[in-house]
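3.2 Worked example (two chains)
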Amino acid sequence: MSDGQRSVQAPAAARTRVGRPLLSLALASMMDEVHAHSGAVYLLAPGEPVLEMAVMAGLPRAFAAPWERVGLSAPIPVADAVRERRLVWVGGEEQMARSYPRISVVLPYHFSLAALPVATESKAYGAVFVTWPGAHPPELSDREREHLTAACGRLALRLERAVEDSRPVLQEPDLLGAPQVGGAAGSLGSVEAARMVSRLPYGLCSLDLHGRVSFANAAAAELIGLPVSRLLGTQLWASVPWLNDPVYEDRYRAALLSQQTTSFVALRPPGDWLSFRLYPSTSGLSVRVTRARAVAEMHRAAPQPGNAPSRLVTISQVLTLAGALTEAAGVQDVVQLVADEIAPAVGSRALVMLGSRAGRLHVLGHRGYEDPQVVERFNGLPLAEPTPGTHALNTGVPAFFDSREQLERLYPSRHATPDGFAAWAYLPLVASGRPVGTCVLAYSEPHAFPADERAVLTSLGGLIAQALERALLYDAKHQLAHGLQEALLPHSLPPLPGLEAASRYLPATHGMEIGGDFYDLVPSQGVAAAVIGDVQGHNVTAAGLMGQIRTAVRAYTTVGQAPEEVMRSTNRLLIDLGTDLFASCLYLRLDPARGRAVMARAGHPPPLLRRPDGRVRVLDLAGGPLLGIDDTAVYPTTEVDLAPGSVLALYTDGLIESPGMDIEDALAGLGERLAEAGELPLDELADHLVRHSPAARERLDDVALLLLRARAQD
C-alpha cells in the first residue's frame, strides 16, 4: 500500500512515507518477529461481506488460490477470525483436518497456522494469517500470540488513519524469498562451485518457490533425459512428460509448506526408476536425483500393479468424491458411497459407520463383514464404554492402529470380540463443530499409517461428516414426514355391506417432502361415502391441510349432508382457513342396496367404472372448480349405476401423470389395465394397477388409489 502525498501540516504520527508498502512491510515484520515462513493479509471488500487477499509472502499465491476471495461466512480460519474477533490457531494437519476439512483436502501437509483479525474496537478491516513449518510446537507461545496481536492492532490503526485521510489502499506486490545467488556473476567462487557440482555422480537441481528450475547439473539432465536448456525456467512436472502427475507436484508443495525433506520415486520409461529428494528452505528447494535401483529391483520382483488400490487418495479422487457426497440423500447412500469410493482407494476391506442415539452407540451401516453380528454387537453400547469407536465419537480425535496387538494393548476387551481384521482407522465425523459419528476402516493385513496418510484420511472424515449430517437430517425428516402422512390417512378401510374396498398410497421418490393426497371411506346411516383428493404442494403444510379436509368431509358426511353440500361446506372451510393452497376432490355417496352412486367433483381426475361385462368407461362428471378458490362455487352431482360386480377406480394424478406422456393416453392405458385385470381379487387388482403404471414407477408425485367393488347382498 502506498500512503500517497500528504500535507506537511498533518500530525507526524499519521504520516507515512510516500510509496511505502504498508501491508507488505507489516506482514514481513510480523513474520520475522514470530519466525513464520509464509503469510497473507486480507482486506474486506468495500460494501461486501468478502475478504480479498491483498498481499502474500513466503510462498507463491497459487498455494492459497482457492481462498484469494472468500465470504465472511466461509468455514476457513481468516473468516472465523474476523467474524468472531479472535485469534484462530491450528496446530497441525490433524487439527486442520478436524476443524477445516476443506483446507486440509487441498493442503494435507504438516504445518501450523494462526489467523487474526485486523480490527479496531469499532471496525474490522480484514485479517492476517501466518504459517510455520511442521516442526513448530503444537501450541502457540504467549510471546508469539502477543507479537501477532500487537502487530495486527498496529496495522488496523494505520488502515484506520488511511481511511480518515481518504488515502486509498493501493496494490502491492507479493513477497517471495530472495533469489538464490551464490555470489557475483562470473566470480571465481561461482565458477568453481559450478565445476564442483558438475563433477558429482548424482543429479542436482535448484527450484525457486514457484517450482521452476533455476539450475541443473549435467548428471540431472542425463538422468531426466532432457538437456539443461530445456529444463531451465520450467517446472519439472510441466516439462518432463513422465513427471506430469499431481502426486509429484504435491511433494513440492509438501516440502515448501512443511519445510521438511520430502521424496518420491518415479518411473522414467521404459523401466528406469529415479529417486527425487527435495530439501526445502524459505527461498526455494534443492533436489537430488539418483537412480532408485532398490525400487527397480523390487518392482521387477513384485507382481505387476493394476489391481492393487492406491494407498492415498489423489486430489482428483477427492474432488470426485466430494461431488458424489453432495448427491447422497440418506444414510445408507453415504455408507454405500464410502464403501464404493473411499475404502478401495485407501486399501480398506471393510467399514462401519457409527452414530449415537440417546447416549448409546448406533450402527448406521456396514460393509465387508462376512458375519454381520460381529458389527451389530456394538449397537446400543453405552457411549461411556471404553472402545475405540466411542472414544473417537466422544473426543473427535482420530485413532489409527497398525496391528491387532496395538489395538488390544489399549483396549483389552477386543480379545473377546475378534473381527478377522488386522489394522483399523477410526475417523471422527465432525460437522458444524460437533461429532455426528465415527467411520471405521478395517484392513485385512497390518497397515502402517504415515503422517500424510493420516492427514488425508482425517480430511476425508470431514467430507464424510458433512454428507452424513445432511443424510441424518434427511432420514429424520423423511421418517417424520411420512409418519405424519400415514397418521393422517386411514390405517384400514371399514367393512361395508355390499362393498369391497382396497387402497394404496405411495409417496413420491423424488425429494423428501410429503404431499397432500388423501382418501377415506365413511359408513353413514346405512349407506357409505367415499372421498379422494389432492391438496396442492409437497410439504408439511399441505399434509396438515389434507388432514383438516379429510376430517371435515367425515364430519359433514356424519351429519347427513348431501354430496353437493359436503363439497360446498368443505370449499367454504378451506377459504375460511385463509390458506393459499387449493385442493382437488371427488366425493361419492354409495348405496349398494339400490345399486346407485351419487358423485360430486371439484377439479379432480375423473373416476373409471368397470362394468360387470368387463367394459370400462371414464365417468366425465360435471363438477365445480378446485376447493379454496371461489366461496360461491357450486358442485353439481351425477348419479351413476353401480350394479353388482362393478368396480370403481378413484385415484390421484400421480397414478397417470408423467413427463412426456399425454394425459388422455395415460388414462386410456389405465382403463385397459382395469379391463384386463378387473376380475382379480381387489387387493391384487390394486397392486396390478400400481405396478404397471409408468407414472407410479417414476413416482414424481404421490400416488393414492381407492378401488370399490359392488357385490350382491344376501
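3.2.1 Second chain
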Amino acid sequence: MPGTSGISRRSLIAGSAAGTAAALLSTGTAEAAPKPRPGAKGGKRPNFAVSGASYRAGYHFTVPDQWKNDPQRPVWIDGEYHYYYLYNADYFTGVVGTAWRLATTKDLVSFTDRGVAVPKDTTVNGDLWSGSVVVDTGNTAGFGAGAVVVIVTMSPGGGTDHQEQFLYYSTDGGLTFTNYGTDPVLPNPGVADFRDPKVIRDEDRGRWVMALAENDKVGFYHSDDLKSWTYANGFVHDGIGVLECPDLFRITADDGTVKWVLGVSANGKSSGLPNTYAYWTGSFDGSAFTADASDPQWLDHGWDWYAAVTFEKRDASGAVDAAARYALGWVNNWDYADTTPTIDCDGFNGTDSVVREIALTKASDGTYYLASRPVAGLDAHVSRTVNLGDVTVDGTKVLDYTGVSYEVTTEITWSQLTGAGVQLRRSPSGGRHIDAGIYGNYAFLNRRNTVNADTSGNWQESHTPFDPSAGTVKLRILVDRTSVEMFVDDGRYVHTSQVFPYLLDTGLALFTIGGSAVFRNTVIREFSV
C-alpha cells in the first residue's frame, strides 16, 4: 500500500534505520532530546550491541522480527481470532515486498505467532499488499464449507501502478493458503489506485460486497462466489489525500438505532485534520453508501494510528455483538516509517495499538459517533496496581512512581484553571516528558519534549475539542515503551502517537496551569503479557 505522502511503499518497506539507538539510549543527564535520523534504505543488518536495552513493547503487539505494517482484519476461526498482517522477512537486507504473517489470540492481548501464512513472491504477481479475509461458511466459492478466503491486492510486474485483486484460499483453518491461479479476480480497469479490498457478507441479499480504495473514491462491488466481481457504485470524498484501507460495517447504537459506518485511512494533515482513520455514519443499500454528513469524523486524532481495521466482537461461543466492534491500528506513519530505535535494540520495526472496543453513541445534538475503550482483556493481565486515590495539585506534583509500561486513569476536577494533565516518561530533572491533558478549549497530547520520529517538528501536539465549562475531564492513558494512547472522556476522543523516550526517563507527574485541581481516583496499572 503506498503511503499518502506519495513515497513508494516498496522503498519504505525495504532497508532499515541503523544508528538511532546511540542517541536514544543515552544514560546521561543532558536534557536536550536528540533527533533520530531516518533509516538507510537497503543497508546491512544493523548492530544490536546495546547490552540490556530494549524498546520492545510490554503489552502491545509487536512483530517478532524484521518489519510489519498494515493490520488485516482479524477473523474468528475455531474459537480464536486469526490476525494477519503485512510482514517483510527481508527488511534488513533491502529486499522489498510483504507477505501475510499470522498470529492467533483468544483475548486480543496475548498473541501466538503462527508464521507466514501467505508467502510473497511465489507467483508471477509478486508480493501481497492489504486485503481482507472471510470465512466462506456457505461454500459459495467452491473450496468447501468453512474455507478461509483471502482477497488481496498485488501489483504484477512490481511498482505501484498496476494494482489488481487476487484470491488465495485455505482448507486448514487459515494456517496456509493456495493461490487461485495467477489471474486477478478483479482486474485493474486502467487507474493508478485500485487496492485494499475489504469484503463483507451481505446476508440480506445473499451476496458478497467489496469496498475498494480508488484514489478519492471507495468503489463498491458485488459477487456471488468471491471469484467474479461487478461494479455497483462509489463514494467520493476529496481533501484528505488518497483514501486507503476502506472499512464497511453495520452497528447498533446505544439508542437502538442501526447505522452503517464507512471508514478509510486518510491523510488530512494539509487541511489541519488527522492522518488516521476517517469515518462516516450513514446508510448502505447493498450498493451505495449515503453519509449522514459530508465531513468525516476521526477514530483517532494522534499522529500514528494508520491502516486501522475494525472487526466483529464475539463471545466465547462465537456469538456476534451487534452493538460493538473491535479496532486495531498500526502505530506508525509513512512520513517516518523507518525511524525507530527498536531496530537497533530488538531487531524489528512494527508495533500495533492496543485493540480497542468501539461502540456507536448518540450525541446530545442528535449525531452519532464511535466511542473507544481499551479491550477488556487487559484486565486479566494486570500484574500490579498502584491506587493513589485523590491527589490535589497546584502547579507540578511529581509522583512516587516510576515506570515505562503502564496505564494511568484519573478524573480531573476544578473550579477555575487554564489547563491540567499528566507528564509521562518524565526525565530525572524534569526537562523531558510527554504531556497529556486539557488546555483551554481543547484536549491534547504533546510529544515535543521527548524523542520522537517527527524530525520536521510539525506534528508534535494533537488536539481535540473540549468544553472547559464542564469543570471535569476523565483521562485514561496507555503508556508503553514507544507509544502513548490517550482516551478522553470515556473514549469520545483518542490520541495515539509514537514516542521514543530515553530508557532512564521513567518519572510520572501531575500538573495544573492557572489554578488547582483534584485528580480523583488516580490509579496506575501495570500488565504482564
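3.3 Remarks
The CA atoms of residues 153 and 321 lie 30 Å apart.
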